[in-house]
């Protein structure tokens, strides 16, 4: 594992690590709910071997990043803006999974120049969850999770149940070439709605890798092959 580094976004300390050549084109990796930068332990070196300078972030409330009081998608978006500013990155490829796709989408629609290519892996959708997701009032039975703040789960559930209109309407403002990867019928994410997301992003394509929600874990080779092919397009 590479050395962990930290920066601050407002008053929140956030952790990240990098791989690949220092002068390589930048590529940002954003993980799922309850995960951390270690989710990309295989993906990051594979893409780094292609020459990318990968940066894997622990989203606020996850991994080695601080727990916080604000877990809106917009706060996480602002953390990414702060990271890009910290690293003096003008534009990066972004590969995101699940929760990370909401953050990545907001980055791409609100600072278009920051995202040069975008890969969205089986992400939550900017449509009201049906049925509504339960909003936990506490960490549940047993010990509180140590890898993430349980309050993130509640915050994400509330936003999934009543997403801001901007999350959906702004998809049409994304200018980065975009690949939406769906996990197929065994994923809990409605795949027809993922196709709808792709249709709302100008020029995006929708590809299915039938692996369920954890595509980059359960079909690693296929995920990396699809991502490599997309990132290498001109």
Structure, explained:
It is a single chain. With 234 residues, the chain is α/β, with parallel strands linked by helices. It has one domain: Rossmann fold, CATH 3.40.50.1820. The protein is built from eight helices and eight strands. An eight-stranded mixed sheet has the order 1-2-4-3-5-6-7-8, with helices on both faces. The model has no long low-confidence stretch (mean pLDDT 96).
Lay out the secondary structure.
Blueprint: E1 4-9, E2 12-19, E3 26-30, H1 43-48, E4 53-57, H2 73-86, E5 92-97, H3 99-110, E6 115-121, H4 150-161, H5 165-169, E7 178-182, H6 191-200, E8 205-208, H7 215-218, H8 220-231
Parallel strand pairs: 3-4, 3-5, 5-6, 6-7, 7-8
Antiparallel strand pairs: 1-2, 2-4
Helix pairs in contact: 2-3
Keywords for this entry:
8 helices; 8 strands; eight-stranded mixed β-sheet; Rossmann fold; 234 residues; alpha/beta; 32% helix
Brief synopsis:
The protein has 234 residues and is of the alpha/beta class.
């Amino acid at each position: 594992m590479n050395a962990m580094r930290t920066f601050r976004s407002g008053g929140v300390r956030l952790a990240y690590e990098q791989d690949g050549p220092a002068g390589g084109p930048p590529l940002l990796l954003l993980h799922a709910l309850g995960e951390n930068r270690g989710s990309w332990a295989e993906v990051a070196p594979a893409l780094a071997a292609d020459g990318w300078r990968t940066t894997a972030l622990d989203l606020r409330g996850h991994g080695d990043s601080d727990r916080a009081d604000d877990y809106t998608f917009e706060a996480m978006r602002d953390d990414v803006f702060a990271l890009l500013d910290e690293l003096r990155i003008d534009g990066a490829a972004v590969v995101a999974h699940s929760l990370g796709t909401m953050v990545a989408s907001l980055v791409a629609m609100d600072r278009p120049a920051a995202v040069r290519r975008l890969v969205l892996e089986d992400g939550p959708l900017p449509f009201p969850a049906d049925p509504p997701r339960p909003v936990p009032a506490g960490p549940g039975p047993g010990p509180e999770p140590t890898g993430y703040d349980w309050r993130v789960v509640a915050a994400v559930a509330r936003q999934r149940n009543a997403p801001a209109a901007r999350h959906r309407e702004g998809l049409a403002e994304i200018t980065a070439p975009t690949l939406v990867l769906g996990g197929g019928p065994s994923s809990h994410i409605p795949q027809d709605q993922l196709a709808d997301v792709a249709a709302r992003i100008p020029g995006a394509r929708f590809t299915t890798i039938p692996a369920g929600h954890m595509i980059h874990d359960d079909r690693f080779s296929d995920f990396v092959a699809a991502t490599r092919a997309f990132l290498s397009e001109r």
